[in-house]
Amino acid sequence: MANNTIDARLLAKMFLAGAKNLEAKKAWINELNVFPVPDGDTGTNMTMTIMSAAKEVTQADPSDMKAICKCISSGSLRGARGNSGVILSQLLRGFTHVVREEETIDAPIIARAFEKAVETAYKAVMKPKEGTILTVAKGASDKAQELILEGKTDLEPFFAEIIAYAEEVLAKTPEMLPVLKQAGVVDSGGQGLVQVLKGAYDGFLGKELDLTIDENAGTPGASSIGGPSLEAVSSAEIKFGYCTEFIVLLKKALTKKQESDFRSFLESIGDSIVMVADEDLCKVHVHTNDPGLAFQKALLYGELSNMKIDNMRLEHREKLFHMERGGGATEISQEVSGQAEKPVEESVSETVHKEVGFVAVCVGEGIANIFRNLGVDQVIEGGQTMNPSTADIMDAVDKVNADTVFILPNNKNIILAANQAVAMDEKKKLIVIPSKTIAQGISAVVNYMEGVGVEENKEAMTAALDEVHSGEVTYAVRDTTIDNIAIRKGDFMGIGDNGIAAVGTSCEEVTMDLIGKMAIDETELISIYYGQDVTKDEAEQLRKLVSSKYANHDVELQFGGQPVYYYLVSTE
After folding, report:
1. For a Cys-Cys bond, which of 346, 357, 478, 519 suits 377, CB 3.0-4.6 Å?
2. Which CATH number fits domain 354-465: 3.40.50.510, 3.40.50.10860, 2.120.10.30, 1.10.3720.10?
3. Domain 236-335 top-level CATH class
């Protein structure tokens, strides 16, 4: 018997099935990244984006189409990571915009939803490029329109033909982008989208699937790069002890003033605040010493749901207790005596309000300190091994006590997420300086001028990006050919502004070759940032070689501490 409609419950099941299938294939999708670098992360970014929404879908009323759509749209929007994740979130946003008001959806509605999804995603990308996830999405949409014109409304063959055509388009992406053809891969984002569609189709067919969504899905693992070890953090340093999360089932949509007042109240009682509201619900995360105050305030706006409180100090002590050797007796003594529960002395210093603040994305203790020493207020760890989400960026912006905040993505795959934060933040003026590398970000901050207007600084900082040539040295994770350069797994690679610049079996030689191709004749300064896998002696040896070969240049060597990339270099 033909199945021609989908209700809310089935849509939720299909979405979760699509998310789980993407999650299962993320490592394979990562391997399809054109550049064979160890931090290829298209699959990871798309998975974390969709899983952010999946967690919310599991908590929604499965019979409420509008609620399901809101969870898909807002959850993916907040969790969007990297270009592929942002585009996926926009596809989902456009799709749900059409279906959210329907009790059941059929083939014509789905075709319109596909069309809206593509329209929304293309608008989100400044310069859409064919041969990407956008092309595959458009192909699926075009096929849906064609099938409707042919009068095909039975959803089983309808979906099957759409997926089959999406795979045909995906197979053609190497012909659209020569770089894909040289690498011998199809577009990784397009493949990710196909896996979502395939998973959703399995859900539609009623296949037995594990739709369990892990509580930590969509949340990056803790990075050890540049951050203090667990042992180094005292529980006394935890200013606000209770991690408090809940959802407010709103009586009615919050006005802008109510939303601002609620956020300000949360800021007055804690930190690490994430608050996102739509028409029906408001999701709150806050670290506070008095969760009851947050609950009481929230009750003014509606009923509470999904309340969760964790004692972070207690959890921290328990972790230390299990990790420490010979220190257990002390921990137990403190617990028994109540000494461990002594109130924390709160810092008397408060962040002074200022007109302009800065948020930068980077990874590596040394690089993070460089940005901080240049006046950057908040540093988000990520960009190489993990792209931060839109929510991560918004959270960092919230912590900056300034009217205007400049955001430095320092990675081309984070620019879209940063721009999305601009569109979502209504409290502050956010300006994205589209820095694609660490060196560009540093140059932009250096070119900021006190006492000059925001727009003038925006122009000067953006112009500074073009004065920097950047390069990075890493290793290949697979055999491939790029720009007619044969690369073998384990080779060192020097990657410049325009792609692969050097390949070899010696890290030092590859780095020297890379620097030699970075517009040396047009520049005066060579900056070298060495990573966590390079010793100080090795870095100093490289500096001497560079200084000897380029005697007319100033050569600066600094500890970056970044993972994966042995050296980050720049010339300007």
Report:
1. 357
2. 3.40.50.510
3. alpha beta
